[in-house]
Give the backbone structure.
Amino acid sequence: MKPNNAYIVLISSIVALGGFLMGFDASVISGVIRFVEPEFSLTKLELGWAVSSLTLSATLAMIITGPLSDRWGRKAVLSVSALLYAFSAILSAFAPSFVFLVIARMIGGLGVGASLITAPMYIAEISPPKIRGKMVSFNQLNIVVGISAAFFSNYLILKLGQSEAGWTKALKLDIFNWRWMLGLEALPAIIYFLALFIVPASPRWLIMKGRDMEALKVMQKAGGENFSTAEFENAKQSFLNDAGKTKTPFRAIFKPALRTVLTIGVVLAILQQITGINSVFFYAPMIFGQSGLGVDASFAQAIYLGLTNLGFTVVAMALIDKAGRKPLLIIGVAGIAVSMFILAEGFRSATYTITQETIESLHPEINKENLYPLKDREFLSDIEFKSALTEAVGFPLEDQVESDLLSRSIKLDSRQILVAMLAFVASFAVSVGPVMWVLFSELFPNTVRAVAISFVGFINSLVSFLVQLVFPWELSNLGTAPTFFIYGLFAALGLLFILFKVPETKGKSLESLQAVFIKKAKVSKTFHQNGEN
């Protein structure tokens, strides 16, 4: 009896809908910040909090998700995350203040942390080795579909809000545009919760709980009778071998035997976020706006990023079980470094000049007389330009006015910026985006997998939070070009680590990978002990 690939695809697709919600929830804020910043009179750090608050609570959720998924089961944790997504979307849409919005977003972050950790772990535990990489990548595919959907829905709501149609006026899409952007997520969240009812419990979790017959039935339905019997015996023996070895599972991941895989996991977790992917996704309209595009054009080009992300994630899924994990990482991270350096150079070579036309186009309430001394002067960086504006006016301009002046005054090759941004997203989507989670699900032993993935996921989310939080501050204080150069430098360092330290794991069972890595660690430990004697 052959593996039931159709059944595995169905179950993996349902579980991976958590990734869709994660991508949508995280990226929808990119269209919201333009409206909540003036409405709530936010500072740059408060703006960073509006974006990153979701990731902060996701970071906290990740540290407890692993143990909870071991206690309650992977399916139960995913169901709770679906409810958190729906609750957060509704509260965010009705937020009367900045603080309320942050709290609502943090509730959604708990769902993000739970689903981001649990979904790939569940899929890895139910999928046969030959298609495991592709199936686990379903989660990343759904994340990027969610990102694309958020960019598209933001743009659609923005355009509909400009329409004179009666139904758009009745729904107040023009006045409450950002509230509709946030609230729309409640619908797919409810669908996800209902769809999870047809998903079985993870077979390896069932084995962990001593429910062997239930586990065998699930494995047979997914992998076929002959294959699943052998897979079941291997998994059962793995749990028996590790049973009772430690009373503190969290401490177990820091033992010498796991040092190699934990180091790989931590470095990849940091690398995926420190190269700036969420700065690009969550602030895309802001970045495109700084390259001289108007509001509508900046929202439209954000859609291109989402579609590129989607297309190259599909490419990664097609290649990950053929080309392998490491080649994709090498090619993609090299592309990330080059793209970021090109972005940095594009903004470094930009010039800024205020013309008579620019001054005249400003809102009538703005005192234009103070800006005339700057007319026709050329500035060589955004920091220099902003400083001159502040000095001329005598106080910092409102963010909306400064952003408008910046976009109207800049001269640069906007096509170079767009191509570099698309190349960056493509490089990320074909490599460290999906491959990191596949490796996480493969490298760690059965008994500590949930706790280990929670830990490295916590590191990943913490770095993501910090990157999102400081990005507006970096643009205001360091400048656009230095910010992107720093991201490129981190990517170059990560590439060196991948070349020399990251192993290939394609086509191997979870238990065989465990045997290889733990054996290597023990041999290394024994060698050092003998050398000291």
